[in-house]
Amino acid sequence: MFSRSLLMAAGLALAFAAPANADWPEKPVRIIVPYAPGGSGDNTARAYQDKLSEKFGQQFVIENRGGAAGAIGIEAASKAEGDGYTFLQTPMGGLVILPHLRNVPYDPFEDFKPVSRTAETVAAMAVHPSLGVNTVKEFIALAKEKPGEIFFGSAGQGTITQMRGEVLKDVAGIDIVHVPYRGSGEALNDLLAGHVQVNFEGNVLPHGKAGTLKLLAFISDERHPDFPDVPTMKEAGLENYEAPSWHGMLAPKGTPDDIIKKLSDALIEISQTPEVKKRLIDVGLMARGETPEQMGAVMKQHYDLFGDLIKRLDIKIQ
Amino acid sequence: MQVGSGQAGGRSRLLSQDFLAGLFFCTVALVGLWVARDYPVGTAMRIDTGVFPRLLCWTLLLLGIGILVNGLRGSTGPVGRLALRPFFFVLLAVIFFGLFIEKLGMVITVAGLMVIASLGSPERHWRVLAVFVALVVTAAVVIFAWGLGLPIPVWPV
Amino acid sequence: MDLFANLALGFSVIFSPTTLLFCLVGVVLGTAIGVLPGLGPVATMALLLPVTYYLPPEGALIMLAGIYYGAQYGGSTTAILVNLPGESSSVITCLDGHAMAKNGRAGAALAIAALGSFFAGCVATVAIVLFAPPLSAMAQQFGPADYFSLMLLGLITAVVLARGSLLKALAMIVLGLLLGIVGTDVNTGTARYTFGIGMLFDGIGFVPLAMGLFGVAEIIHNLANPERRDLVTAKVKGLWPTREDFRAAWPAVLRGTGLGTLLGCLPGGGATLSAFSSYTLEKKVSRYPEKFGTGVIEGVAAPESANNAASQTSFIPMLTLGIPSNSVMAMMIGGMMIHGIVPGPLVMTERPELFWGMIVSMWVGNLMLLVFNLPMIGMWVRMLLLPYRLLALAILFFCCIGVYSLNNSATEVLFIAFFGVVGYLFIRLECEPAPLLLGFILGPLMEANLRRALLLSRGDPMVFIERPISLGLLIASAVLLLFVILPVVGKMRETAFQE
After folding, report:
1. Helix-strand-coil percent breakdown of chain B, rounded to 5?
2. Are the beta carbons of A157 and C409 separated by less than 8 Å?
3. What residue in C sits closest to B20 (Cα-Cα)?
4. Domain positions in chain B
5. Most exposed residue of B153, C266, C398, C406, measured as fewest CB within 10 angstroms of its CB?
6. What is the pLDDT of residue B40?
7. What is the CATH number of domain A124-218?
8. How far is it, in rounded angstroms, from Cα A133 to Cα B40?
C-alpha cells in the first residue's frame, strides 16, 4: 500500500512535469490525403476537418497528393517530420492491400503510428436485373451452373472492389470472372448497360433505390437504414465472408504519443456528433472512431487477411 | 518532284530532317522493345501486357526505317542550326522552377524562372524586365497563394 | 406539359440573384483559367471544391459547371493566340486558329470561335432538355467492342488531319500511342515503361505533355528566330469576321455541333474526339482541303462548336446516371457528394430544382460567356503586340505553375522540360505534334477496350463484327483509310509512270 501511493505520487509528479506537447497544436496542421479532391478519403478528411479546426483552435489543412492508387501520398506522409503537424488520412487500400501486390516505398507499420479509424465504407453487391436472381444464394447457384460466364466489374486491379468479389469466389467456391476498369464510374457504366453482371461497390446504392440494379446484400455488419429489406452478407448465408474497408488517420513515426492520444480522443468524439455522421452517411460512409491501439490491432488483422487471400487466390500484378 | 530544297550533297543528306527523324523513331522503337522484353505476351485471345508495346515498337521501327530511307534519298532539306542559347536557358529555367519551387518558395522561383529564361534572348532591357517580373510575381502570389490557396510557400521554407 | 413546368422551375432557380452571381463567377473564372495555359478546369475545381461546401448546392454546382464550359471558351483563346492548347480538345483549334492569328486574323478567329461555341451550347442544351433519356440509353448501347471501333475510326482521322509527309504523321501517331501506354495497365495492374518513377504510374499527364510539346518548344523556337519573334506577321486586319467568313463558317458550325452533341454523350468519347473528327470532316468535305492548316475559318468554327457541344452533353451521363464521362464530371460528382447529394437516376426526380436549374444555367452561362468574351477580343489582340520576349516569360510561368497545381508535383514540372526538348526536336525535324496527341489520348482507351471486349466475349474476336455498332464503325474506318491511302498511291503511280 505504501508502494502504491508512492507510485501514485510518482505518477502525479510525472503528469505535472507537463508533457512537452500540452499546447499542441500551436500552428496549422497538415493532413495529407493521397487522393484527388472529391475522391475517396477526401470526403472523410473534409468531414472531420472543420470540427478539428474548431476544437483545437488551429487550422487543419488538407493537402491532396493523388496518384499511384494512394502510394504517392502515403510515401510523402511517411517522409514527413513526426512533429505532430503532419498526418495522413487515407482509405485502407494503400496500407493493407497494395503492399502485398507491389513494392511500395513505405512500410505501413514501421513508418507510421495509427491514430484512429475515421470511417467505414458502405458497399453492396449489386446485380443487373437481367440475371434474374433475387438473393445471394440464387446468385451462387447460377454461378455454379455457369462457371466463367458471369463477369464482375471493379474499379481496378488490386482495389477493394476487386477483393470483395475475390472473397466471394473463395468463400462460395464459384468461378466469376474479374473485369477491371479504370475507376468506379466506368465499372458502374458497364454494369448498368449489362456488359458485366455484378459489382461490389458503394456507388450502386442510388440505382438500387431506382430499380435499375438489384442489391443482393450489403457488405457490412449492419443493414443499411435506407434498405431495410436487403440483408448483410452474413445474414444471406455467408458467415465466413469478410471484406472490410475503412478509412483511417495515421501519424508519421516519431510523433509523440501524447499528441496522438489527443488527436485520437478528438476523432472519437467528433465521429459521434450527428453532423459528421450525417455528412458521411450521405456519401456512403459510416463514421467511426477508436483508440490507436484498437486501430493498430485491426490494421494488422486486415493486413494479414488480405495477404492470405491474395496468396491463396494467386492474385498478382507484377 | 523533289520536295524541299534541291539535291543535297552526301554529308548534308545525313543531316536531313527525314534522316534524323527516322533515326529518332528507330531509336525510340528499339529502346521500347528492349524495355518491354520481359513483359508477358499471353495468347492471341488473352492478350497480355506485352503485346501492345511490342506491336507499336515494331510498327514504329518500320516507319522509322521508311522515313530514314526517304531522308537518304533527299526528300527533305538539312535541319538547320540548333538554337543553343534559348534551348539551354529556357530548359534551365523550367528545371530551376521544378527543383526549387517547394524549397525556395514562389517569389524566388518565379523570378528566377523568368530571369533565366530571359537570358535565352540576346536583347537586354533590364529595367523593363524587372518591372514585368515584379508584376508577374505579384500576380502569382495574389492569384495562386492567396486567392486559390495552393500549398506553395511564398518565401523560402 | 411537364417539360414547361420543369423549365420554369429551372429558370426560377437560376434567376435568383445569388445563383446568377455564382453562374457569373463560374464562367468568368472558367474563362480566366482556360486562358491561362496549364491551369485547367480540373485543377481549379479541385481547389474550389472545399469552398463550395459553404455555398448552397445549386449555386455551387452551377458555378462548377460554369468553370468547365467557361474553360472551353478560354482555352480557344490561348490556342488561337499563342498556339497553346489548354485542354486536349483545344489542340485542333491551334492548327488553323493560330495560323489565322499569324495572318492578322486573330479577331475573326476568336469571334467565330465564340459565336460557334454559343450556337453549339444552345443546341446541346436543347438536346439535353428534350433527349436526355434517349441519348443516355443510346450511350449505354456502346460496349467495349464498339468503343474500340470508334477509337480506331478516331485514330484514322488523325492521319487525315496531318499536312506533311504521311509516313511521319503515322510515326507520330504510333509514338503517341506508345506514350499513352506509359503507366499502369488497366487489365493487369502491371506498370509499363514507368522506370520506377512514382508519378508515371498513372501515366504521363496530358498537361505536362502538351505544355512541353507546344508551349516550351514553341517558346524556344520563337526566341531563336528574330523574324518570327512577333506573333503577328501580317498587319491586324480588323477584329470581326467578314461576310465570307460567316458564309463559310456556318455549315461547319452546324456539322460540328451535330457531331459534338452525339459524341459528347459517350462516356470516354467526349470533347477531344469530337473536335478532331469535326476538323477531319470539314477537311474532307471542303473544296480546298490543302488550305487547311494555313488559316481556314472552317478549321476553327467546326472544332470549337464540336467541343462546346460535347462539353454540354457530357453532363448527360452524370446527371441521369451518376456516371462521370471525364475527370471534370468526376469533380462535379465530388461537388455533389460534398453536399450530400448522391448522383444517380433519382436526382432528376428527387432534386428537380437542382437538375433543371443546372440545365437552364448552361444556356444562361453560354449567353454570359458570349457577352463577356466578344468585347474582350480587342484586348486579346492588342496583347499580341507585347514584345514577345516578355510574353514568352509569362507563358512559361503559367505553364509551370499550372502543371504544378494539378497534383502539387514538382516532378511533373520537370516532365515539361523533357517534353520541351522533344518538342523542339520535332519542330526542327518537321514532325507535327497534333497526331501524336490524338494517339496519346486514344491509345490507352483503344487497348483497354480491345482487351476488355475479348475478355467479355471469352476470347472470341468475332464480337467486333457481330455487334452492329462496331461493324458500322469498322466499315467507316476502312472507307476512311482508303480515302487516305488512295491519293498517295495514285501519286506514287503517277510519278512511277512519269519516270
Report:
1. 70, 5, 30
2. no
3. C429
4. 10-72, 84-147
5. B153
6. 81
7. 3.40.190.10
8. 38
